[in-house]
């Protein structure tokens, strides 16, 4: 059997040294890129809507509207909110809104009035009242189904700032906008609504 020629083995050795050299450069480039990404992260993260601290009762705003921030992180439990009382109530107390994650229901019916201010909102405008219904196996109100824009790049929800009219259990009307889906301290799952009571 003929022993391998040393000149035949030399290219393989050079190839191995070349692969090792490329591997080291690739590792160094990866580490450097990772470090730059970490340092740049605060500057490239998109601005999100301000978060609000949870409130036990609705806060009266300077313009006479109300703001309420609720924890809606539970996947199975609806959060019942009474706008007149300005607080969360029991499920059986005829709440005005029911919230779960990013889903909003209005047991008395709702309509999307579009991008109008709370002060100009008029329930006689817009389309028909929409009742809560089961869609794809869960309750929702399709009038308020897409109150947000969803970003595929950063997975954040941004409110469309539409105003919605709802019928309350006492047959009066209320108007609200979703101000944010984020908390203070930071996090998701805090629904902040700003609203006014109508007649």
Topology (SSEs and partners):
Blueprint lengths: L5 H39 L14 E2 L5 E6 L7 E4 L4 E2 L8 E4 L2 E3 L4 E3 L20 E3 L2 E3 L7 E3 L6 E3 L4 E4 L5 E10 L5 E10 L2
Features:
single chain, 199 residues, alpha+beta, six-stranded antiparallel sheet, four-stranded antiparallel sheet, 1 helix, 14 strands, 20% helix, globular
Question: What features would you describe in this structure?
Answer:
- It contains 1 helix and 14 strands; from the N terminus they run αββββββββββββββ.
- With 199 residues, the chain is an alpha+beta fold.
- The chain has a 6-stranded antiparallel β-sheet, with no helix packed on it. It has a 4-stranded antiparallel β-sheet with strand order 4-3-5-6, with no helix packed on it. It has a two-stranded antiparallel ribbon with strand order 8-9.
- β1 (59-60) and β2 form a beta hairpin.
- The chain starts with 5 loop residues before the first helix and ends with a strand.
- Mean pLDDT is 83; it is low at 34-46.
Head-to-tail CA distance between termini: 103 Å
Unreliable residue runs: 34-46
- What's the gyration radius in Å? 28 Å
Q: Which descriptor suits the 3D outline?
A: globular
Largest sheet: 6 strands, antiparallel
Percentage of residues in helical conformation: 10-25%
Q: Please give the order of strands in the largest beta sheet.
A: 1-2-14-13-12-7
Percentage of β-strand residues: 25-35%
SSE-based structural type: alpha+beta
Number of domains: 2
Number of strands: 14
**What is the chain-wise order of helices and strands?**
HEEEEEEEEEEEEEE
Counting DSSP H or I runs of 4 or more residues, the number of helices is 1
Mean pLDDT: 83
């Amino acid at each position: 059997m003929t022993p391998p020629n040393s000149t035949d083995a030399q290219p393989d050795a050079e190839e191995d040294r070349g692969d090792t050299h490329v591997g080291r450069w690739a590792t160094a480039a990866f580490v450097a890129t990772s470090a730059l990404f970490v340092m740049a992260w605060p500057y490239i993260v998109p601005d999100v809507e301000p978060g609000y601290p949870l409130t036990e009762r609705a806060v009266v705003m300077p313009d006479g509207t109300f703001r309420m921030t609720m924890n809606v992180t539970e996947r199975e439990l609806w959060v019942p909110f009474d706008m007149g009382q300005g607080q969360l109530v029991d499920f059986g107390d005829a709440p005005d809104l029911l919230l779960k994650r990013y889903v909003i229901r209005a047991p008395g019916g709702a309509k999307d009035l579009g991008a109008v201010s709370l002060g100009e909102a008029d329930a006689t405008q817009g389309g028909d009242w929409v009742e809560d219904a089961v869609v794809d196996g869960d309750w929702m109100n399709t009038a308020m189904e897409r109150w947000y824009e969803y970003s595929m790049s950063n997975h954040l929800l941004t409110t469309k700032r539409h105003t919605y009219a709802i019928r309350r259990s006492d047959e009066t009307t209320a108007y609200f906008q979703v101000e944010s889906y984020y908390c203070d301290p930071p996090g998701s799952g805090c629904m902040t609504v700003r609203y006014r009571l109508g007649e």
